[in-house]
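Q: What would this chain look like folded?
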Amino acid sequence: MAKIPQLHDARHGEGASPAPAASAGSATALETLAAQLAATAVERDRAGGHAAAERELIRASGLLRLSIPTAYGGAGASWSTVLAAVRRLAEVDSALAHVFGFHHLQVAGVMLYGTPEQQAYFLPPTAERQLFWGNALNPLDRRVIARAELDGYRIDGVKNFSSGSVGSDLLTFSAWHKPSGTALIAALPTQADGITVNPDWDAFGQRQTDSGTVRFDHVRLEAIQVLQAPGVEPSPRATLRSQVAQLIMTNLYLGIARGAFHEARRYVRDDARPWFASGVSRHADDPYVQERFGEFWLRVQSAQALADQAGLKLDAAIARGPSVTAAERGEVAVAGAQAKVLAHRAALAVGSDLFEVTGASSTAARYGYDRYWRNARVHTLHDPVSYKIRDLGRYALLDQAPEPTAYS
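A: My prediction, written as structure tokens:
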């Protein structure tokens, strides 16, 4: 059986050191990491590009092991715990939270699609060597083609929107199989022969998500690396991967909204001056400012309540293992759609409207407050929220759960 090759660590001239134990210390590690990312978030957002040093901070935190089961050397955290970590990081740096969340999404793919043999192939090295996963699983982009070859496949083509691919150690990807008219899902080391990752992401938000373009040139794919073969109908359990993805995005948006709320609150309380006509000596005592904060609070709190509820439903469905039913999967999808719509709205609204309460001085570049709206605007275009609302309408009107797709 092929083995995942030992990766070279340029800092030490050898394999990366083992991750620190992740248990009760995970919460402390998370807060430490959040503070480290917050310290440079504004400058890095302005610069864009690959946040190599910050990715090493994530690696050193041990939190890449969070979602990996203890049997494979990980922390064995629940998905609601992982999602809360994504949310916390997104409060200070939604781009690196995206990279972090999508690493765990690929771990979820191995757990939900993979056989026990494949899990034992991919996950212990990931935990032991703190390997970073990237994503090139964009099912709407069919330019990557899989052709049967011996007992595996040959992969050729280009995939864009490949979040976390730059600087990754392993990649999950999809490839179109023309004879069956379906896609396969597989994973490979990013440094495998024939894989080229181009750091060409240039959006105006989420600027450090490492969402480059990945090119595959005559890449050999072994059978052990194929998580879902062409023509195979995924089980209800396997389709929970898309719900993990949707809830990672939900918590990214919620984290952006929370970050914008808390920064606006700090500015209004500490830095802002009252409008001359308000009749108050402190800006925070202006009733119109208070009314706007009430609206912000309602948006954030309602989105957070539904996000927490959806996370617990995901935990319960995954705990069911292979016994989870299509109906139970549908309940997770409904809960996730509700949460995502409200988090989407909260991130855009609070990220934009905060300037109405912070005032003209808060637009100074040193604050970088515009990043909240820019990041939310770019990421919320991942898949149209209107289709989530349509799905909820079908459920409310016809008791019809969302159809399992890569986006629902």
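The CA atoms of residues 191 and 272 lie 50 Å apart.
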